[in-house]
Amino acid sequence: MQTTAKPMPTNATADTIASALSQAIHEHRLAPGTKLGEDDLSDIYGVSRTIVRTALQSLAHQQIIEIKRNRGAFVAQPSLAEAHEVFEARELLEPRTARSAALNATPDDVALLNDHITQEHAAMDTGDRGRALFLSGQFHIEIARIAQQKTIADMINVLIARSSLIIALYWRRESALCESQAHHALIKAIGDNDGARAEELMQSHLVDLHSALNLNELPAVEHDLRAMLLGDGKR
Amino acid sequence: MQTTAKPMPTNATADTIASALSQAIHEHRLAPGTKLGEDDLSDIYGVSRTIVRTALQSLAHQQIIEIKRNRGAFVAQPSLAEAHEVFEARELLEPRTARSAALNATPDDVALLNDHITQEHAAMDTGDRGRALFLSGQFHIEIARIAQQKTIADMINVLIARSSLIIALYWRRESALCESQAHHALIKAIGDNDGARAEELMQSHLVDLHSALNLNELPAVEHDLRAMLLGDGKR
DNA sequence: GCGCACAATATTGTATACAATGTTATGGCA
DNA sequence: TGCCATAACATTGTATACAATATTGTGCGC
């Protein structure tokens, strides 16, 4: 039996769609290189191509996808050079931001961070690696938010989205995703309002991540957009 | 005699329009708060609203303009808090980028920077303060380019555009725009491949700029879009 | 004259139609 | 069979039509 159409919840906005795609990319449900056809997406979300286009342009500005003229939108495939650039930028921004966060953090903030970690562990336990990855990214964004630097937080947000693509392409499997420990230590430093230590920990955490990149590029794969994005278990 | 219509060179692309608007804002020909009507712009550039919209969305992503739903696009009016954030972000990124630039710079790069300064002086001499401001921004972007960090350069690019708005709103006139001297010193450090000094100079240059901001917000003014954007001397 | 309700207008939001371009399939020819 | 030209198709680019919303203007009652 073929499942056809079903226009979807509809009334989706450009932001909704951009978020959904962004999250799907974060969680590695959409692989680098995957084509994002406008008609496909408008069918899936039940809106016109106009809206889809707006969403795609937004993602293109974040360099999460690449729009090739007359060819369409594709999930970005950062080069190795870009990969290094992204992590170098993160190394400039995040350590000092972690320091600010440590100085600003309230108990509520710390609780929220702990909550993040808990969810991260839960996702790991259920084997949902993609979700764990997404949450570990959110952790970094949360720290930027706590630092109350919206401008910097926005930049980090974009860098983390790109990092997710980089991890999808260049991660060497040997180095197990041992983020949890680093994140735990960070929370402690932040909870203690120890700015210097938070900065230091973030710095080394990023260096760890950066050095865990590999040199050989992986090929891009095609996916069933609807299944990847809606994830409903119809077969 | 009233000058009407004249659809303009036409065949303008979204990028063309975004650049034109961006530059106009850089040069303070478009004041913060100015409304950018879609019909106005499509008339001016001779394209459909579709293209104009794409351009506006692009600028909105850079936070150069603000799009209010069902209200339209307006040149952004950064709050004082945002102003500080922008300069704090620049202080995180630019000094170290200047260091990289100093280490990477070729004689050609230095020549190009000197050329920039020359043009800046020329604009100053002809009293074209707007153009001088634009060029001094480009100077910073050029340094990021020399550092060969495209990702960071893009971020700095956006920050500088926002800085231009901030200067329009919060600049205290007393402190004369003495950028030239700081820029000269920077070029020297870069030409000597003296990374440490370049970083130091950039840092203090940014602190100078940051501390030259004022506290009282200026009101926004309306402008004749066509005249501001096309600048052709028809009266 | 002032304030409010409501109508008229203008502007943006969304969908759709058509044009331009790229991709794929087909068929002739060597 | 293999290759190229060309036609059929699919997809994106742009313009326009219509709907939804905000803004402005008008007139009535007080």
TrEMBL record, chains A, B:
Pfam families reported for this sequence: FCD, GntR
SUPFAM superfamilies recorded: GntR ligand-binding domain-like (SSF48008), Winged helix' DNA-binding domain (SSF46785)
Keywords: DNA-binding, Transcription, Transcription regulation
GO MF annotations in UniProt: DNA binding; DNA-binding transcription factor activity
Highest taxon above the source species: Bacteria
Keyword tRNA-binding: no
Positions of the HTH gntR-type domain: 11-78
Alphabetized InterPro entries for the sequence: GntR_C, TF_FadR/GntR_C, Tscrpt_reg_HTH_GntR, WH-like_DNA-bd_sf, WH_DNA-bd_sf
Protein name according to UniProt: GntR family transcriptional regulator
Originating species: Yoonia maricola
